[in-house]
User: Fold Aminotransferase from Acidithiobacillus marinus.
Amino acid sequence: MNELLKKIYVTQPFLPPLEEFLPYLEQIWDNKILTNGGPFHVQFEQALCEYLGVEHVALFTSGTIALVTALQALRITGEVITTPYSFVATSHSLLWNGIRPVFVDIDADTLNLDPTKIEAAITPQTTAIMPVHCYGRPCDMEAIEKIADNYNLKVIYDAAHAFGVRDENGSVLRYGDLSILSFHATKVFNTFEGGAIICPDVKMKTHIEHLKNFGYVNEVTVIAPGINGKMSEFNAALGLLQLKYIDQVLGERRRIDGVYREQLHGIPGIRFPSMPVVSAANYAYFPILVGPEYPLSRDALNELLREHNIYARRYFYPLISGFPMYRGLPSAKRENLPVATEMAQQVLCLPIFPGLNEYEQKRITGLINLLAHNRKSEAIL
Assistant:
């Protein structure tokens, strides 16, 4: 197929060779254990702990169920301060627990929750803060946790994008009371569907293991109103296989990130959000901000890219706070969220995935660059 006719998507899952997965399937069939904490489940948990540099991991069927369960595990009630600039699962997990989201604006440079806006949103009903490591870029954890300590609040990090991200002291997943990962097919590391809670100690992990399995302790004892959040052996086996390739995947993403930065640098109206200082990034997404200096609006640029079979994504747009189940909240008013509103109107995540070759990537950057110097779109069509 002609390269120009290929559709270039914002994200594509990395899939190991099928022949490497077949022995895992054969073992599952031979063991006749499909779920409920089978051998691959146990191996995968141990492998993740070793790779991520954490002590305790509880695997889940999805990151969303992990979020819902984490809130249950910490007995969070009342109000939780969070960001409107995220995927809806962040705030949906609060509603599913009968918790009121309180939206706080984001930082214009990092697009993460702005710590300077948190204290003003705290009320007597506030019990926790749920920040998001947006695009896998760590939020200001030191500032957030200082506020949480001062007001005796729990901190649950939605770290869905932050697999493998480290600061100078190790994994960013070690911060807060709990951190949640997603292994959805669109993530840097995936098990098709899946997720995990990073637990600080054995006691919390044991509690979470009960909650994700209907509250069962043994065949005749149920101690909590749990849910079915268990990861299957199939997904755990895929995770074990994916781990063999993760460093290769991250290296490829790093290369693509570098090419984008080099080729898009200096284009009027195109800005990159700030990257916090980390010792290991995962390059989960490549967002650009399309400002008024660019000849086209963000939406017009997105449409032109699509006409050329390049599928970028306006991620995150619209804001969570604009959806019907949230827009009636006082904290959801646009005037309370000026930065998030502006960034949601400008953001465009460009394709980044292993297998995006240099030719295809230069076609993307070349088109954006050409458009910057042609105010009439007809000039490039």
The longest strand covers residues 56-60. Residues 269 and 292 are 6 Å apart (CA to CA). The first helix runs from residue 18 to 31.
